[in-house]
Amino acid sequence: MNTITPQAKRFQIILKELKKSNRAFAAEAETSEGTIRRMKSGERELSYEVMRHVCLKYGYSAEWLVMGLGDKKLTGQHAKLVTEIQLLRTEIDIVVQLNKQMNARMTGYEKENDNLRSELQSLKDEIVRIKKTG
Length: 134
Prior knowledge:
- The protein has 134 residues and is mainly α.
- It is built from 6 helices and no strands.
- It has helices at residues 6-18, 22-29, 33-41, 48-58, 62-67, 79-133.
């Protein structure tokens, strides 16, 4: 059974406040209804594009949407600028996380490569030994 993430719960709150169906919001955000449904259920993470749409079009705080921090909506003359800054910070966090994942994969590939080289050398040594004795 899938547990709904806090981020998915906040996304549900937003769509309820906007009184938008999955279909209507999907069309507006230029994505599929199924994608929105999976994001609402927590089956899929909220995409950056959908976060950006919610925050810029409706004034929701990226910090609140992603982490549950601060005010839910931004108001005032600097709201758009604050939203842009929050979205940039979110984008940087995503890139940093992806970089960590890629580094972990590379480390795994390097270990696997070293193991394969070692096995290959053992096979070469075995072939040389067989040729000498045989």
